[in-house]
Amino acid sequence: MKVKTNKELINKIYNEDSRNLLNILDINIKIKSTITSPPYFDMKDYGSENQIGFGQNYEQYLNDLQIIFDKIYSITEDDGSLWIIIDSFKRDNQVITLPFDLSNKLKESGWLLQDIIIWKKDKTVPWSKNGFVQRKFEYILFFTKSKNFVYNKDNVRTFDTNQLKKWWVKYPERYNPKGKALDEIWEFPIPVQGSWGDQYIRHFCPLPKEMVSQMIELSSSEDDIILDPFTGSGSVMFQSAVMKRNYIGFELNSDFIKMFDNYLEKTFSNSRKEYELIDNLKGQSDFELQILNLRILKYAKLLIRDLDKQKINYFKIFVKNKGKSEIKNKLIKAEYTFVGEFKNVDDTLANINELILKPPFSKFGIEPIITFSNNIKVFKNKNFGYIKSNSYSFQKGIDLNSEKIRIISDICVDFNENDYL
Ligand SMILES: C[S@@+](CC[C@H](N)C(=O)[O-])C[C@H]1O[C@@H](n2cnc3c(N)ncnc32)[C@H](O)[C@@H]1O
């Protein structure tokens, strides 16, 4: 038998039983990430013989899933991963903990459970007449093959300031300058008519494109191979193709595959164009600069607060952003020039050096350069003044030489925290 090359094996949905996936996939093929939602135990008939779930008992069902994910483990790259979207359900007035029963089985195969994510959606399958709370979520289990795995968390951070709580302006040191990391509750509404085309919605519960895209983004790069052993409508396969990944799917019901091929043919080129146009990271570097500038100014504000307590002479601080720091764990260099009459500069410097080694200063990621000067030239058009209590909006209409102005900088920030939700 002629051995197929990787190129011949990828970008296909096989109308085959995924229990036999190793009969088709060459052992040399390497999957970067598997993203799948297995059949929902015996609750839905997907219309093909030998399907997993429907017609099986719980033990058979779990064993079959274990066999499949065990095989997938053997063809997954060492830094690869597995996402399983799965839910618990009720039988005989009791919760059956399917996500956890399955996790225990997969641990035996070597998969490491890294995270349990809650997918919050607006509705799901009916829970049970006797349940007293409404069902609103499903589990997403995230497994990896090893401890070192691909997880591009910086690609999916939130840096849209409208989505951040307003205190990012006042507490910039608490925010990662690249944006807020994902948390473990993901909110994605289930697709509605139109988003996948009417036919699709009638036949399946396809996964939300945005959610699949987030998983692909987190766990793979372009040209990697994404696998779905239960492709159904092919939502994972479609999004993989759009995002320039290679895909491999398995699906028993050939009608579903035909429908997918048709959908791909009709909509792929527009979706690909959209993908190429949307730059998800656009604005991230502006956000990063804003956070770092806010940190630099707040650092000066805190220095003034602490030194004023020690009742040294009146002084102003002249602040400059000096660019990226080369020191480990420091993000940015900033120059703080203390302008005033100091009785003993060496003592003040020693004082400052002691302060900045400790929190909160040590937590700002700033490499400070401390200098002293009796006088410094300020330019009305180039410099901005801040008062002792507010380092996030510069003062308008107050002379920079006024006593009220304590921080002068070429950094211009002007935030009204109430403008942010
Ligand atoms: C929950 S659905 C997948 C839905 C899919 N994630 C989507 O977005 O449409 C599960 C699918 O697994 C398929 N299936 C069941 N047993 C299978 C097996 N042994 N091999 C391959 N596919 C199977 C069913 O036909 C069904 O389409």
From TrEMBL:
Its EC number is 2.1.1.-. Keywords: DNA-binding, Methyltransferase, Restriction system, S-adenosyl-L-methionine, Transferase. The keyword Methyltransferase applies. Pfam families: N6_N4_Mtase. SUPFAM superfamilies: S-adenosyl-L-methionine-dependent methyltransferases. InterPro entries: DNA_methylase_N4/N6, MeTrfase_CN4_CS, RM_Methyltransferase, SAM-dependent_MTases_sf. It catalyses: a 2'-deoxycytidine in DNA + S-adenosyl-L-methionine = an N(4)-methyl-2'-deoxycytidine in DNA + S-adenosyl-L-homocysteine + H(+). Gene3D superfamilies: Vaccinia Virus protein VP39 (3.40.50.150). It comes from the Bacteria. Residues 32-259 form the DNA methylase N-4/N-6 domain. This is Methyltransferase.
